[in-house]
């Protein structure tokens, strides 16, 4: 079984259904939250794969991860019931990611991630957002992260491209050049 093929089939079917019902925007928000829950709580995936939990408990867990205390949309609830009925909960994270990709392609949304050593100001964030949006000719979703291990500079991921201007990477390159130069001398 190819995880990618099965996950994409579920995601495509959901996207087509959501578009026919006009609910793709609401589902997108729920799946964004579910994706955040998967990334923030790796135990969620293990819990869904736990055979001791009942389908009802897994359903409640998924809905809580996607919408918190609010009620899940009818389409989301029906889709999760289908996933659980077909015992595909182990693929749910992949289905989620596939659906998010399909939605973003359909709505021309670019995804960017800016990693800096210190927090950036709102003005800088907005300038980067606007520049990336103009460059892609698409609307942008920009996430910012602070990672002190990069020591300075920034790392900017946009769709499938990465611009790494971090001090840590620059130091690694200098170190590698120094090592290579010494090897040639010996």
TrEMBL record:
GO MF, one annotated term: proton-transporting ATP synthase activity, rotational mechanism
Compartments, record wording: Cell membrane; Membrane
GO CC terms in record: plasma membrane; proton-transporting ATP synthase complex
Keyword terms of this UniProt record: ATP synthesis, Cell membrane, CF(1), Hydrogen ion transport, Ion transport, Membrane, Transport
Domain of life: Bacteria
UniProt xrefs under Pfam families: OSCP (PF00213)
Gene3D superfamilies membership: N-terminal domain of the delta subunit of the F1F0-ATP synthase (1.10.520.20)
Cross-referenced InterPro entries: ATP_synth_OSCP/delta_N_sf, ATPase_OSCP/dsu
Membrane topology: Peripheral membrane protein
Family named by the database record: Belongs to the ATPase delta chain family.
NCBIfam families noted in UniProt: ATP_synt_delta, PRK13429.1-3
Its biological purpose: F(1)F(0) ATP synthase produces ATP from ADP in the presence of a proton or sodium gradient. F-type ATPases consist of two structural domains, F(1) containing the extramembraneous catalytic core and F(0) containing the membrane proton channel, linked together by a central stalk and a peripheral stalk. During catalysis, ATP synthesis in the catalytic domain of F(1) is coupled via a rotary mechanism of the central stalk subunits to proton translocation.
Protein name (Swiss-Prot/TrEMBL): ATP synthase subunit delta
Species annotation: Bacteroides muris (ex Fokt et al. 2023)
Top-level taxonomy: Bacteria, Pseudomonadati, Bacteroidota, Bacteroidia, Bacteroidales
């Amino acid at each position: 079984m190819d995880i990618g093929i099965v996950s994409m089939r579920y995601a495509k079917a959901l996207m087509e259904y959501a578009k026919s019902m006009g609910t793709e925007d609401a589902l997108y928000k729920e799946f964004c939250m579910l994706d955040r829950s998967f990334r923030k709580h790796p135990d969620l995936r293990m819990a869904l794969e736990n055979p001791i939990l009942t389908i009802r408990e897994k359903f409640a867990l998924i809905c809580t991860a996607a919408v918190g205390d609010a009620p899940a949309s009818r389409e989301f609830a029906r889709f999760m019931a289908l996933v659980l009925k077909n015992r595909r909960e182990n693929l749910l994270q992949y289905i989620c990611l596939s659906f998010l990709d399909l939605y973003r392609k359909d709505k021309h949304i670019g995804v960017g991630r800016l990693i800096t050593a210190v927090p950036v100001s709102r003005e800088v964030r907005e300038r980067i957002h606007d520049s990336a949006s103009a460059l892609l000719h698409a609307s942008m979703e920009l996430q910012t992260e602070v990672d002190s291990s990069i020591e300075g500079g920034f790392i900017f991921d946009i769709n499938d491209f990465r611009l790494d201007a971090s001090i840590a990477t620059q130091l690694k390159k200098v170190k590698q050049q120094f090592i290579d130069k010494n090897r040639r001398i010996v």
